[in-house]
Amino acid sequence: MKNTLSQTINNEKIMQKQSKRNKTNINKIISITFISLMALIVYLPTLLLIVYSFTPSKTIGSWSGFSFELYTQMFQDAEIMTALLNTLIVGFVASLLAGIIGVITAIGIYSMKKTGRRLIDGITQITMVNADIVTAAAFMMFFILIRFIPDGYATLILAHTVICTPYVIMSVLPKLSQLDPNVYEAGLDLGATPFKTLCKVMIPQLMPAILSGFALAFTISLDDFTISTFVSSSVDTIPQYLYNKLKFKGVMPVLRALSTLILVVAFIILITINLVQNRKSKQKTLF
Amino acid sequence: MTKSKHSYHFKKSHFAFPYTIISIIFVIVPLLILVYYAFTDKYTGGFTLNNFSMFGEGSLWITLGISFLMAFLTTLICFLLAYPLAIALCKINANRRFILVMIFVLPMWINSLLRIYSVKLLFNDFLLIDRGFFLSLIGMVYDFFPFMLLPIYTILSQMNNSYFEASTDLGANPYKTFMKVKLPLSIPGIVSGVLMVFMPAVSTFAINDILGSSQYWLFGNEIYFWFQKGLYNIGSAFAFIMLVLILISVAISSALNKIVDPRSKSLKSRGETL
User: Fold this and answer.
1) Domains in chain A: how many in total?
2) CB contact B78 to A (< 8 Å)
3) Residue range B245-272, pLDDT digits in tens
4) Structure confidence by residue, pLDDT tens digits, B224-246
5) Beta carbons within 8 Å of A149's beta carbon, 6+ residues apart
6) In this structure, which topology does domain B57-264 adopt according to CATH?
7) Residue A27 included in any domain
8) Of the four, A42, A146, B57, B59, which is 20 to 30 A from A97 by CA?
């Protein structure tokens, strides 16, 4: 009697567990379906863009054979190539400067007292939270008032450096806390100057974080349209070029090849940073 | 020599000085210049409120109305899609989840004009939806969706499951558990998501220029227009209004966050989630 009772209780428990498992399974199936559907919707425009970059047809929807014609067209287009070069120059110089300033600042902030930290935190927040158009307008007025900075590369690089630096600081700061604080002191004790200690001791240890901060700054520079339009009228970057063509011109098939190229390069950079970060620190990091 | 070395003692925190100076010159001063222009006359340079006189006209209020309606709808649609998606993502095993989240968040770092162009290709050229308010709305949802998803996902994934189990054990049904436990706990994520979608949606002008029609304007178009025309004082006045709007919404969000969690920091931005 006793035995059967405990058995039925056991059976009930197993049944409960099974129904619970079934329920979580159904939940999971619903989740996966929903996630796949959303991913499809999110990537449908991009997929269409990539697929139709391999056909020279004027409109989307009519396939006129597989070819690299749009790509050869793109590489022969002087305007596109200039814009591409400008984007790369500005992005590279600005993110290099932002990288250097960001790393030095992060080391400074890390050993600061609360009040100083709060001040710099506030400033970086202003840069990151402020709407692009307000930052852009403020830069424009600043450059108009201070006439000696020539319009073009100088204004673009300056503005991009300022908006990118906070992101470098944000990516280096967490890694600093994982370092041994005594190493810096040891460098000083052994007779190195603060600058030398920085270059020979701190920076090598922070290299992975610095590289991902640099890549991050680079993508932000590539991403920027609003600020570039406001601060530079003589030098066009890719986003400015795209805007002008999309606003004022109708169909331009060559843009599909250009967009695909940028997309692929950007994805490779982003995935690399994410995988490197993910491998270095066990902690799951995301943009 | 040794004496002078001791009189200036270098501290590590001094490394932050260059950036402090740079950011005061290139972040704070430009904003002050903008405010100065907003309140001064173009010719005399004296104090004036005339730059804001446009706000007495009805047409500007229509622009503001459409702009806010667009931003509101964008935020709402983004939220309604992002919240269930974030819940669904949390149900996936942790080791596989990372890649999935990355898939949805990556577009955030792709040039926004490029994404708008791809939206134009699909909806305008392929599905033949006419340019206008609706297409603009689709473009904005596409453009800003990751910014809503990321903060909501971040907060949901950090939640302790035992809260929900406790709620269920205490007799609440799943609906009640969601309304009374999960949703209130996720408010900080929702607030920063709303902020990160609403503010850019109010101030953008590129999306509407490419996907919208010329029959109406958004607030961002208005600001861009005056700067392009070289009427910097009026443009600055509009940008100043935008700045005030941003400050108000940041204040509201940090107040809301303090109510929910007194220890939480004021605002989560793109960089902080790194």
Assistant:
1) 2
2) no
3) 888 888 888 787 777 654 444 334 433 4
4) 988 888 888 888 998 998 899 88
5) A143, A155, A158
6) MetI-like fold (1.10.3720)
7) yes
8) A146
